[in-house]
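Quiz preparation item.
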């Protein structure tokens, strides 16, 4: 396998690409409803701000991060709402500035680590490079919501490899979110990068495989497109079922997107 790109630098670049979507929005633009029911563009930015604040805290002050985790309630929805509330209370210019601050803090704190340094996180501790990959996942998913709301077509780069690797690493999240038994199987993945390169993950001789465009794979695992609108294929019954439940984040799966909702835009 070729040398891995710098996930910390790529996280900064993806943050810059997200900022280009929102930097020039007026107040009406910030109030635009996104495909996530009940969430405006402002909600999307508030959520990212809260997540990156936690990532920055995890990477820079793990003891405080652990104390914060212990103070959280047992309700996922309540925790999300509480984390977003201070950001949503701010007018758009202040929210944008706060988002800039949170992402910069997280980017610097993560980059101060060696990629293999273990840092705490919400589900389980992970290497700093993998947490940066989780940040890439958040930017991809919420960035897609914003782009869909604003009618903007995104142009992806091979930086999404980090998200693909993260999704392959967290392949069991879809089962766990639905309280399904995780099968004793390893999937192989063959994905076509935006550049046209071929990426492979998992055992090369795996009997059950997922294949297709890497962008479609990212849209699937962030649940921003229904599998029927994506050019992904599966070999094997477990792999076929996985395409129905795949998600690269813990917590409730949510309703996802409906078949045909974005078919034209996706293709």
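Solution:
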């Amino acid at each position: 396998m070729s040398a891995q790109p710098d996930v910390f630098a790529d996280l900064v670049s993806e943050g810059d690409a997200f900022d280009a979507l929102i930097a020039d929005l007026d107040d009406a633009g910030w109030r635009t409803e996104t495909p996530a029911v009940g969430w405006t563009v402002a909600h999307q930015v508030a959520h990212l701000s809260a997540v990156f604040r936690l990532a920055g805290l995890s990477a820079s002050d793990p003891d405080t991060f652990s104390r914060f985790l212990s103070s959280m309630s047992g309700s996922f929805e309540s925790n999300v709402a509480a984390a977003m509330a201070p950001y949503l209370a701010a007018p758009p210019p202040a929210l944008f500035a706060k988002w800039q601050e949170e992402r910069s803090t997280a980017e610097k704190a993560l980059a101060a680590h060696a990629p293999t340094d273990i840092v705490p996180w919400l589900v389980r501790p992970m290497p700093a490079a993998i947490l940066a990959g989780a940040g890439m996942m958040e930017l991809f998913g919420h960035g897609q919501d914003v782009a869909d709301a604003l009618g903007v077509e995104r142009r992806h780069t091979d930086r999404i490899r980090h998200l693909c690797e993260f999704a392959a690493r967290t392949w069991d999240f879809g089962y766990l979110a639905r309280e399904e038994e995780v099968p004793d199987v390893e999937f192989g993945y063959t994905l076509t990068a935006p550049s046209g390169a071929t990426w492979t993950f998992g055992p090369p001789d795996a009997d059950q495989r997922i294949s297709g465009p890497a962008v479609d794979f990212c849209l699937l695992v962030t649940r921003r497109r229904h599998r029927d609108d994506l050019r992904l294929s599966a070999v094997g019954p477990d792999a076929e079922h996985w395409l129905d439940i795949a998600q690269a984040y813990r917590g409730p799966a949510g309703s996802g997107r409906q078949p045909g909702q974005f078919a034209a835009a996706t293709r």
